[in-house]
Amino acid sequence: MTINRIVRIIAGFFIMLSLGLAHFSGQADLSTPSWLWFTLFVGANLFQSGFTTFCPLDGILKKLGVPETAGDCKSGCA
Predict the structure, then answer these.
(1) What is the pLDDT of residues 3-25, one digit of tens each?
(2) Percent helix / strand / coil, the chain, rounded to 5
(3) Inside any domain, residue 57
(4) Is 70 within a domain?
(5) pLDDT at 51 exceeding the cut of 90
(6) How far apart are the C-alpha atoms of 30 and 61, rounded to whole Å?
(7) Is residue 59 in a domain?
(8) In the predicted model, is pLDDT for residue 59 greater than 80?
(9) pTM of the complete model
(10) Is residue 48 in a domain?
């Protein structure tokens, strides 16, 4: 497992955890439609992409012609 995948898993978990804690402490109501559901979707997508390597945004960016890597950084990139 790579650092990138672990970062995705942890970031997704913390997003979903913070929403869950806010909901169960009464600070956020996830039982009604709101923008918090979008945040939950982003967190869940990050979490699952860390395990499956599938991310819808990856495919969209590839179709738009965005390169996957910035190039070779072995020659002194910061």
Answers:
(1) 989 999 999 999 999 999 998 99
(2) 60, 0, 40
(3) yes
(4) no
(5) yes
(6) 30
(7) yes
(8) yes
(9) 0.74
(10) yes
